[in-house]
Structure formats: structure tokens, C-alpha cells
Amino acid sequence: MPKVLLTGGSGFIAAHIVDILLQHGFDTVVTVRSDEKGQKILESHPNLPKEKLSYVIVKDVAEDGAFDEAVKSNPPFDYVLHTASPFHFNVQDPVKDFLDPAIKGTTGILKAIKAYAPTVKRVVVTSSFASIVNSDQHPPVYSEEHWNPVTWEQALDHSKVYRASKTFAEKAAWDFVEKEKPNFDIATINPPLVFGPIVNYLNSLDAINTSNKRFRDFVQGNLKDETPSTDTFLWVDVRDVALAHVKAIEVAEAGGKRFFVTNGFFSNNDIADAIRESHPKLESKLPPKNAPSNPPSYAYGYDNTRSREVLGISYLPLKKTVADTVESLLAVGA
User: What's the DSSP call for residue 209?
Assistant: First the structure.
């Protein structure tokens, strides 16, 4: 069977990618930062032969040569899915702590693959809507043709450094392929807010991804007095994002393309209403019903045609995402 290296194997999106890779028959190796994280992944998939699922340790993805050993394999890898991103608790210097690691983490694995893994045919990079959006001047409709116009100088603003880091890292990947002419092509997956069930063996209520924190807060009654404003209006289910990564290595036409993977618009009140419907016992913890169901107006539209037509993604509805996410949070004590 084809063999895949998945970086950042203990991440929210990556944990779901593992499930789909195994379902689709791929031999899968994940990178993790510690034996403890690797063992948790293996323990959650018992009875698999070692060649179907294993792990290698990469402690710091931003270090020079971090992936040099990880990409070497016998039998060799056919594909790489790069979801890992540098991990920092305290960003004091935007360049040193955020921008450089994000860019080096991406270019580092591409360099390692070119040098040590000549059998790799395609690399799929987890990017973001952050590298598409232009918050200063939204186009009428966002699609893969749009790029965040952020400059390096603007990126030094702490409020813009995350979006800038995703933008520069993705651009660095495309530039690498154009200039280095490696043995592989690339595709990028660009989701907005990613909702969906947490993976119990990896997550605690304190460590869930940022997008899902609103679900935890609803379930715990932290938002029952007032529905918070919806600042970002586009979302996607993590399982659709995971499937998009796998389809991007299975579908030949996906090479050389970006994929804006989004289901569309939501509001925080839509989430509260969906929780009310799927878990009526939580009614007392939810904000009042009379909040407006949608933001007054959307500043832009979206076009997810490429993800549907090339990758065949059929997006999960918000009500299912909400019900499954809440259920996963309750299972870990929310």
C-alpha cells in the first residue's frame, strides 16, 4: 500500500486525518514531539500491525534539519501531509517566535523531502483562510485566487502576526516548488474556523483548539447571559478538512492547487440553537433564544467550488457538527 508521512500527528486536524488514512488503506507514519504523544495515538488504534501505523519523534519542527531523519523510510514514502506548525506559549518577538518558525517549519520539510525522499510524489500543506483573507478590503467573493496582502512590516503587529505567518509560510512553499523544481508537487488546504468533535485520547477541556472553545463555553454555561458576537463568519467541520487532505493525495488533478475548504457562514447564535435542539438538557446553560439568528450582513461571499468538484467534498451540516462536538466534549467532562 502507499505510505504516508503525517506531520504534527497529535494535532486536532491530524488526529482525524489518521483515521481517514487508515480507512483508505494507507500505511501511516506520524511525527510527534514525544513518545507519550506517539503512544497515545498507537493505543487508540489497537490491533493494527506496525507497518500500518507508527510514529517518529520530531521535537522542534522549526529546527534546521528537523525532518531529515523522519522522511527517510523503508519502504519509502509516497506522500507527505504537513500539518505540523511551530508551538509557542509566549510570543514576545513576532519574527523570532512566530514568523521565522512558521516559514522554516514549512520549507524545512520540503528541503528534507527533496534531499532524502525522492519517491515522494506529492506534499499536502495545511494552510488557512488566514492566507486568503484581506480584512482591510474584502472582495465580493473569496476563492483560491485571493491572497492576504499583509506585508512583513504589518506582520510585526501582534494582532496580525498569526495571519501573516500562515500567509508567508504558504507562499514559501509555492516559491520552493517553483524555484527548486523538486521531485514532488504540492497542494494546500485552506480552511477557516475548524469545528468538530475533539479526539478524546489527545484532548482535555483546557487544550482544545481555539475554534472549538466556544462550544465548551456554551456547554459549561459561560455564555448563558449573552451570545458573543460572531467576528469570523466562515467555518468547516474538521472531518471535511481531514478528508480534503487525503483526497488531495488520491486525486491526481489536485496537484499544484490551493483548496478553500469551507462549508459557509454561521453565527454563534446558530450554534447555541443547534445545541438547544440536539441536547435539550443543556437549555439552562445556553443564552436566551431571542438573539438574532445571523449577523446583520456578511461583508463577502465565498466560492468552495474547487473543493467540491476536484476533491469531491460534500460538506457536513452545522447541526451534525454541533451535536457531535458537544457529545465529544461531554465525554471528557464538560
Answer: -
pTM: 0.96
Q: Residue 170: which CATH number?
A: 3.40.50.720
- For the chain, how many structural domains are there in total? 1
Residue in the structure block whose three cell numbers are 507514519:
29
Q: What does DSSP assign to residue 74?
A: S
The verdict on residue 62 lying in a domain is yes
- Computed from CA positions of residues 24, 13, 9, 212, in that sequence, does the dihedral angle turn out positive or negative? negative
Sign of the Cα torsion 258, 170, 115, 59 reads: negative
Mean pLDDT, residues 296-311: 89
Alpha-carbon span 161 to 154, nearest angstrom = 8
Whether pLDDT at 298 is above 90 = no
- Domain assignment present for residue 219? The answer is no
Q: Is residue 109 part of a domain?
A: yes
Residue 28 zone, left/alpha/beta (φ > 0; ψ -120 to 50; rest): beta
Q: How many CB atoms neighbour CB 219 within 10 A?
A: 20
Is it the case that residue 291 has pLDDT exceeding 90?
A: no
Q: How high is the mean pLDDT of the chain?
A: 93
238 — pLDDT class (breaks 50, 70, 90): very high
- In whole angstroms, what is the distance from residue 47 CA to residue 23 CA? 14
What's the confidence (pLDDT) of residue 88? 56
**Residue 206, domain member (yes or no):** no
Evaluate if residue 296 carries a pLDDT over 70: no
Q: Which domain holds residue 127?
A: 3-195+234-262+301-315
Residue 228 per-residue DSSP state? P
Q: What does the pLDDT read at residue 150? A: 97
* Phi and psi at residue 208, to the nearest 5°: -70, 160
φ, ψ at 138 (rounded to 5°)? -65, 135
Q: How many helices (H) and strands (E) does the chain have?
A: 10, 12
